[in-house]
């Protein structure tokens, strides 16, 4: 099963935006992530709707943070990107009449729900500033060639 990397990619982008001098265009972000600018705009639009980023059209426009990194948590961004599935494993529904399958599925659902609750709680306690603290310039040197106009 393919992993959903939207959360990781948007955290990456938001930290860069937060430490970038000026707005970052969808094209700059797409180049940095080796992605399509249309996909970037669509994903960033969800973050804009939640009030985490602002976009300005035209020359000198692009994406900027609406709130500082210290006010954005992993949980905020996780929710903004659509709360992707945390686990690649889950219940099976091959034999819905089987009492053992029903018991297994009920137990798995409870365990997964508890684990997801713990992870969401942990996400709520980590800000993007916490993640960025070891990168005083946002790791821009890694993407310098990709961010160059």
TrEMBL record:
It comes from the Bacteria. InterPro entries: Tscrpt_reg_Rrf2, WH-like_DNA-bd_sf, WH_DNA-bd_sf. Pfam families: Rrf2. This is Rrf2 family transcriptional regulator. It comes from Neorhizobium turbinariae. The lineage of its organism: Bacteria, Pseudomonadati, Pseudomonadota, Alphaproteobacteria, Hyphomicrobiales.
């Amino acid at each position: 099963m393919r992993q959903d990397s939207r959360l990781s990619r948007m955290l990456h982008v938001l930290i860069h935006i937060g430490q970038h001098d000026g707005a970052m265009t969808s094209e700059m972000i797409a180049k940095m992530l080796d992605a399509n600018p249309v996909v970037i705009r669509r994903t960033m639009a969800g973050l804009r709707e939640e009030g985490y980023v602002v976009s300005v059209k035209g020359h000198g426009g692009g994406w900027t943070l609406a709130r500082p990194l210290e006010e954005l948590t992993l949980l905020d961004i996780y929710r903004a990107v659509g709360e992707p599935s945390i686990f690649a494993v889950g219940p099976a529904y091959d034999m819905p009449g089987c009492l053992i399958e029903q018991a297994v599925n009920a137990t798995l659902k409870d365990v997964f729900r508890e684990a997801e609750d713990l992870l969401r709680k942990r996400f709520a306690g980590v800000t993007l500033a916490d993640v960025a603290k070891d990168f005083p310039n946002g790791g821009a040197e890694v993407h310098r060639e990709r961010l160059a106009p």
